User: What shape does this take?
Amino acid sequence: MTEASDRAPNAPRSIKVTLGMAAAGALAATASQLVWASDGPNWPGLILMFLSAGLLVSALIHPWRRPRSFAWLATWSLVGIPVFAALHNVFYALGELSSETRILPLVFDFLHVAAFVVSLVLCPAAVVIGLVGWLIRSRLRP
Assistant: This one.
């Protein structure tokens, strides 16, 4: 949780920036899927996917001002990588075990793909943003 003093003072402008970054992140995610190729290296799709994750994380944290908030973001995102990788495996196994039912495999398929994307795309982007934000904000403090 962030404290009120951690936020930027200009709330209406902050909402516009948040919505703009979130829209740009959604647009980059859509573009990454449009240019995605299943064969060979796909650098444009990967770059757009990580750009999308970075924009979505930045949309949520851009008002932060304290270096400690960025350090916590980097720490918990680093912890989240193996946690969500393990959850991906758990949800995949549960989906395989529940293959005789109708709806459960669909739910577990969604959950294992979501955990995979969070583990390999969202968490690493949040680690980088947290570290860069911590470095910049700790240098700006008197």
